[in-house]
């Protein structure tokens, strides 16, 4: 079945970095645009970034532009989100998505 599994979250100090991964299975990963979204406690869903099927085109929310980098390895069926210069407001549950399918998410907490 179609499955997305995120990993790489954790606790990091402000200014630190994390790299999230999303392992895809059950569908032709290389054919689909992929998304990273996040949801902070008590807040609504926020789109973070998008990457097209071959990785040649990316888009970012203004809140993360210049700090986050989305990428993908179609040979490994894996989506990535490199997060640098993390801020407390980046604290959220991060999950990957394509179409109507999303993963369970990985928690990122930025705190000193």
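Sequence proposed for the structure above (112 residues):
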């Amino acid at each position: 079945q179609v499955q997305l599994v995120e990993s790489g979250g954790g606790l990091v100090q402000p200014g630190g970095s994390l790299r999230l991964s999303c392992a895809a299975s059950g569908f032709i990963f290389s054919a689909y645009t992929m998304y990273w979204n996040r949801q902070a406690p008590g807040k609504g869903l926020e789109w973070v970034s998008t990457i097209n099927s071959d990785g040649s085109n990316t888009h970012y929310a203004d809140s993360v532009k210049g700090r986050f980098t989305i990428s993908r390895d179609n040979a490994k069926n894996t989506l990535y989100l490199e997060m640098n210069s993390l801020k407390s407001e980046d604290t959220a549950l991060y999950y990957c998505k394509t179409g109507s399918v999303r993963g369970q998410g990985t928690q990122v907490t930025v705190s000193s």
